[in-house]
Design a protein that fits this description.
2 helices; three-stranded antiparallel sheet; alpha+beta
């Protein structure tokens, strides 16, 4: 996982020590980049943040399973 807090295309490895140096402010814009690996033999589907679940069509939501 990596984070970017600057308009320049620089990714900082996600590490607690580095994050403390960024002095992240609530409400600020940051880019978070992650690399995911499949853990089961199921069709791929993009992760979804639960906050936006109600905006996703039921036909798409049906592919998700509760964690």
């Amino acid at each position: 996982m990596w984070v970017n807090h600057d308009p320049k295309p620089v990714l900082i490895p996600w590490c607690e020590d580095e994050l403390r140096k960024l002095n992240i402010e609530p409400g600020a814009n940051y880019l978070l980049v992650t690399l995911l690996r499949k853990t089961c033999d199921a069709e791929f589907f993009a992760p979804i943040q639960g906050h936006y679940e109600s905006m996703v069509p039921e036909t798409s939501r049906a592919r998700y399973r509760a964690l």
